[in-house]
Amino acid sequence: VFNKVNNDISRLSKVNGLSDIGITAIKADEERGLVIVGYENGNLDIIQNKSITNFPAIKNSSVIGDKSIRHIYFFGTQAYISTGVGIISFNLDRLEVRDTYQLLATGTPAINEVTVLNDTMFSATDDGLFMASLNSDLTVFANWTQDLLTPAPFGPIKNVSAFAGLLYINIREGDEPGTYLRQSEDWIINNTSSDIIELTESPSGLTLNASYFIDVKNLDGSLSFRISDYGDDTPMRTSQAIFDASGNLWIADKESGLIKYNEEEGFEFIEVSGPGTNNAFKLEINDGRLWVASGF
Asked: Is pLDDT of 296 > 70?
């Protein structure tokens, strides 16, 4: 946890409050002052007012399948949680699971992400893009329809994102990989790279992250600017990039840690005390101290 006011860094783990290991998703709701942490086994932690509450309902459910928390999306009073067994609607005011959405009569494909645009929910799945009106009962599979006009109507769609009234999808596999922008009912190629691993929307901008470069989009979907290096020989290994309300771009890098970027100040590398990786291969005790050699 990095405090942007005083630059203090603190660490949360199972040792001091978290209920599990294997974090796969994390999302902050600034309006309510809470953070949802999702795990690979479906477990959830809610961090609020410096306390941590565990919600194991998804983990402990009798549903068979991949319960890993893949993505968390806030809309209104709900957190829509994407898993391999469906979309989970979690009420943020009552802090409880409200509904589970199945998209097909035979069950549901694995859900990678969801977003909302113009009162319609869009779901990126391993079997294509699905959509349903928020004014309908989303628990009824017949209210979900599949977009057959995408470049991969039955193939895996990794990401879906809505920004500035525009809808984006990201396809990493198949004959036509890339990031696409929806215009009317057509899908127009927006980025031809098959290496985009994440689309991250925020009120201040949309980022497309390919690990070795980050694209920032204008309101009309055109390229605002691209970051492909940190201004030196440090390689980029980015996991995610997101804007805060002040227009600062925060970058999570697998090798360089946490990085803050803005046009005026450039890059600021924020160092976290500890080994560079959890792949420790050598330990030595000397003069009452434990030395850890980490490697990649």
From this structure: no
